[in-house]
Amino acid sequence: MPGSPLPLGATFGTGPDGRPGTNFALWAGGADSVELCLFDEEGAETRAPLTEPTDEVWHGFVPGVLPGRRYGYRVGGRWDPWSGARWNPAKLLLDPYARAVDGDFALAPEVYGHIRHWPDPAAADTVRDDRDSAPYVPKGVVVHDEDDWADDHRPRTPWPDTVIYELHIRGFTRLHPGIPPELRGTYAGLAHPAALAHLTRLGVTAVELLPVHQFAHEEHLERRGLRNYWGYNSIGWFAPHAAYSASGTRGQQVGEFKRMVRALHAAGIEVILDVVYNHTAEGGRCGPTLSLRGIDNRGYYRLADDPRGYTDHTGCGNTLDAGRPQVLRLIADSLRYWVTEMGVDGFRFDLAAALARSARGVDMLSPFLAVIAQDPVLRRVKLIAEPWDVGPDGYRVGAFPPLWTEWNDKFRDTVRDFWRGAVPDLRDLGYRLTGSSDLYGWGGRRPYASVNYVTAHDGFTLRDLVSHNTKHNAANGEDGRDGTDDNRSWNCGAEGDCADPRVLALRLRQIRNLLATLLLSTGVPMLVAGDEMGRTQGGNNNAYCQDNEIGWVDWSLLDEPHWAAVRDLVTRLIALRRAHPVLRRAGFFSGRGLGARGLRDVAWFGPDGREMADGDWYGTALTLGVFLSGSDIRQRDARGGPVTDDSFLLILHADHRPAEFRLPGAPWAGAYEVVLDTAEEGSPRGGSGGGGGGGGGDSSGAAGTSGSPGAATAGGTSRPPGASGTSGASGSPGPGAAAGAGETVTVAARSVRLYRVCAAQRASGNRLDAPDWSSPI
Q1: Which of 102, 116, 390, 772 would suit a FRET pair with 679, their CA atoms being 20 to 30 Å apart?
Q2: Which residues contact 114 (CB under 8 A, 6 or more apart)?
Q3: What mean pLDDT comes out for the span 571-586?
Q4: DSSP assignment string, 551-611
């Protein structure tokens, strides 16, 4: 039967005669022929030519083809690599719209469209290989798993309230002792109560899953006994990766993925997918013919000036041409499918600059960005760009349009530099702490356009960041050529494992400093699975191929009290952030006088207790104080009233020596209460100021000043907030103790201290009596 050209893919339903069957539709623009190949349980192949293309879509309805049936395509046309034409009907091709995939690609020369080992290497990709690839490649699976999600309740967490937790499905669950062995490493494992309990205990609001689209393993890795662990090698953009299924691969993986999403939603956690639409697993000109290359090589990829090759803006051998209608349709259809049918809440786009490329280079008016902006489904979900690629002018941090949030690597680099004691650019640090208005303070963008992170899946773990000066990637088998050398790390005095208690104590403090800086900064914080419990990769900063203990989360670390304490610190910092809107502002700081007292919403102080002047931003100081006013944060609550909060003083001190810091006096404060001190083994504390979780009071603050990092600006500014102003007895307040305005306190070497501020105090002689915490500034 002729069937229908829409929708693309394999769609189970009822034919014109009322019989059940499946409609198959494949776009193959320049092809001469398309054969549908159906496989029975024994693997026997039946071919059915599709003879009636409509608008370049080849289609047909086949009665009796039920869910679970496996299929693929053979596409015929010219073999002319010199013009970019690489049709080869001997190769069984995976449907890019397949909703499930069964099997894997074998390490066999038959999967290549050309003769793999031709005597003349210069011509190797030009001689067609006519051997059948069907025995060596996976097949698409007909799926019928419709779901209206009527019983699901999406958390719909606002961006300012979001805390992201980046995790790998397999790595997060593979060693978890509370998950049954048969579920470890799977979607069902992540949905297990033991996994959910850890996430809800931390208080994260979203998981960002490393790629779950069907992906392939590279030949060079398999020959070394390794695998593509991370999954940035997609070949099926509608299919959940079959290897992560505990229930089966004949379509069962679809239902299992949906149940995982439901379980996360029920726990109040959103699901964000890391998606790879910039390149495919087919690699460069000598790569295998698995799907798009054999369907229409010229129609899907950006070809080089010599059409035998590819424009490579991704470092992976090829780049999809997201400016072409058929590629845009594939991407948009895939995204909508994952939202409407699979229930996900957002996407992080790998190498997003490659998708925004047009003939003019990286183009913020590109067809890809325009399609996303006008789509009524996609514009309502969370959209995160990795705002760069490896092509010319590919670094575009801060350039993406409204609707988009970006990974902010400037936050990562600046915070790492500050805490390793590198000569800092205090202006840069000021901007990073306050939402990066120099990058995002234009076009209606907000502080939540910045995803702040110190570590991510690529690079050192947090523990390795404070334990290694150099990468140790020998296990990858690439002689140290892989992985960045720009780690901005510091090993605290010894490389790698160390038994010196002083080094270990310093490393733990540095971890606390980095976590506190991340979670007390304005923007959207992102944590990486395992950092809260000291996960290590042994100094490997590119564990993309390590599907083993190097890449997996080691849950036994939580049996060690010091790592359990770090986990508890993260829990309490997130609770602190959740309790105080001044820490998660939706708008940039104005730098103007606000509220009844007319105090600016942010001010910056040096150790002498005076506001920083212009020249102070260009010094080499490693101590910075930030006053965060909660008196008026220019937000409205659900009833339309103004949101107010406590005010805070945040002190960051990265020097190896203690610092004497004079607490600002009037009008900034009447008294101070310590809420957090990373020099202590414990976590946030204090007897008042909000419900922190786990035995400590919480408080927090905000930041930004006119003509400074925190202030919203058009085109950026030359210096950070509060470059003006002026402002005891020595001694450092104990846990939860009050300190007087103008008092000089000792801040421990390499530490973060957070004070909650009160407006007035009751004095009895020279003694500070009960501060009046009821009057926030």
Answers
A1: 772
A2: 81, 124, 125, 126, 127, 128, 129, 286
A3: 97
A4: TS--GGGGGSHHHHHHHHHHHHHHHHHHH-GGGS-SS-B--SEETTTTEESEEEE-TTSSB
Per-residue model confidence as pLDDT tens digits over 723-735 = 343 333 333 444 5
Alpha helices in 394-550 (DSSP H): 409-419, 426-433, 437-440, 462-465, 501-519
93: nearest Cα among 295, 392, 358: 295
Task: Report the pLDDT value the prediction gives residue 768, as an integer from 0 to 100.
Answer: 39
Q: How many residues does the chain have?
A: 777
DSSP 44: -
CA-wise closest residue to 387 among 338, 326, 445: 445
Residue 758: band (very low, low, confident or very high) from pLDDT cuts 50, 70, 90? confident
d(CA 542, CA 459): 6
How far is Cα 24 from Cα 28, in angstroms, rounded to an integer?
Answer: 13
The count of C-alpha atoms lying within 13 angstroms of the C-alpha of 447, restricted to the half-sphere facing its C-beta, is 31
- What is the reported pLDDT for 760? 55
618 token code pair: 């260009």
The upper half-sphere exposure of residue 116, i.e. CA atoms within 13 Å in the direction of its Cβ, equals 12
The tokens describing 238, both together, are 């509608």
Instruction: Quote the pTM value.
Output: 0.93
Closest CA to 524 of 204, 776, 753, 279: 204
Q: Which of 243-257, 680-694, 720-734 has the highest mean pLDDT?
A: 243-257
Q: At what angle do helices 561-579 and 193-202 cross, to 10 degrees?
A: 60
Peptide bond into 771 cis (omega under 30): no
d(CA 183, CA 173): 8
Interacting residues of 19 by C-beta distance below 8 A, sequence separation 6+: 63, 64
Q: What is the pLDDT of residues 183-234, one digit of tens each?
A: 999 999 999 999 999 999 999 999 999 999 999 999 999 999 999 999 999 9
- Indicate the residue type of 50: L
| CA-to-CA separations, 325 to 299, 593, 663, 685, in angstroms, rounded | 9, 51, 61, 56
DSSP states of 736-770? T-EEETT-EEEEPSSEEEEEEEESEEEEETTEEEE
Sign for the pseudo-dihedral over CA of 223, 227, 231, 237: positive
pLDDT at 503 over 60: yes
Cα angle, residue 723 at apex, residues 514 and 586 outer, rounded to 5°? 55
Structural domains of the chain sorted by starting position, each given as residue range(s) with its CATH number in brackets: 9-141 (2.60.40.10)
Other beta carbons within 10 Å of 217:
20
What's the CA gap between 643 and 542, in Å, rounded?
44
User: Between vectors from CA 543 to CA 539 and to CA 548, what angle results, nearest 5°?
Assistant: 100
Q: Which residue, 625, 648, 667, 598, is CA-closest to 757?
A: 648
Q: How far apart are CA 339 and CA 129, in angstroms?
A: 40
Instruction: Count Cβ atoms below 10 Å from residue 626 Cβ, excluding itself.
Output: 28
Task: Report the C-alpha gap between 777 and 595 in whole angstroms.
Answer: 8
Peptide bond just before 7 cis, omega within 30 deg: yes
Lowest mean pLDDT among 297-311, 417-431, 468-482, 555-569: 417-431
> Facing residues of 772 across strands?
760
What pLDDT was estimated at residue 597? 64
Q: Which residues contact 123 (CB under 8 A, 6 or more apart)?
A: none
User: Tell me, what's the pLDDT at 738?
Assistant: 78
Instruction: State the maximum Cα–Cα separation within the chain, in Å, rounded to a whole number.
Output: 97
- Which residues make beta-bridge pairs with 404? 383
- With b for 16 or more beta-carbon neighbours within 10 A and e for fewer, the 520-531 pattern comes to bbbbbbbbbbbb
pLDDT band at 682 (very low <50, low <70, confident <90, very high): low
Is residue 22 within 8 A of residue 12, CB to CB? The reply is yes
Catalytic residues, which ones? 350, 386
Average pLDDT over residues 293-308: 98
